[in-house]
User: What shape does this take?
Amino acid sequence: MNAHQGTNTHDETSVNHDTSTHKFTDMDAATLRSSINNFEGVCTLATVNPDGSPNAAIFVPTMPDDSHIIVMLAQNHTRTNIERTGNAYMVYDVAHPTAEEKADRHAGARARLSLVRPEGKTAEEYQAVAEKFPRMNPAVIILRIEQLLPIG
Assistant: This one.
């Protein structure tokens, strides 16, 4: 798989809705993990409010492995929406505003995420990821990367 193909990590039967132009630098999972864990970019999580309106918030995530995103959220709209729907979307962007070429001014990824709950059918997955993250606390939410797409 090259860097310009969408990565669907868990559901091979889902439709790939990649409408990317591939005009910007795409990050694969390993590059995304390194960048996030080195605080190089900005991360926005998007969810849907109960009335159908969008909710977007900027967060500082971490990646304990190439398949999961961890965020720490207080009891707020974003957390409530993730727990209610089990889904979120992430945009991660590293800006290079002084790059000569327009295509080099942004690097990053978009991700379709699903909630990994500490109970039920994802309990074992939750525990395995939690063991990799030494700062586990009640604010932690673990999200599985279902699909990784380019930002542009």
In short: Strands lie at 7-8, 25-26, 42-48, 54-59, 62-65, 68-72, 87-95, 106-116, 140-149. The mean pLDDT is 85. The two ends are 18 Å apart (CA to CA). The chain has three helices and nine strands.
